[in-house]
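Hey, resending since the last one bounced:
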Amino acid sequence: MPMHNPPHPGEALREDVLPAIGMNVSNLARHLGYSRGQLSTVLNGRSAISADLALRLELAGLGSARQYLAEQAAYDLWQAAQREHPPIARLTFA
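The structure tokens again:
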């Protein structure tokens, strides 16, 4: 069952993971070999978690890359469903 308005996965990283590991954005970015600016945009929900970032987080022991990507997909799908779309008729197959 799809979640109602799932949070951006960066939010959990910012609110839960960073405090738990006692790191700030700059330190985590440096540890991951990632740009501080890019990581900050993810943590603030302005950019998606990429496969590359998800893998780096997994390699650092901060969760499963597949789980981060699944959370991002759930967030993206929910956001897309909230936008207005043109009427699209269901296809039928013979």
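Residues 9-82 form a domain with the 434 Repressor (Amino-terminal Domain) fold (CATH 1.10.260.40).

Sorry for the duplicate.
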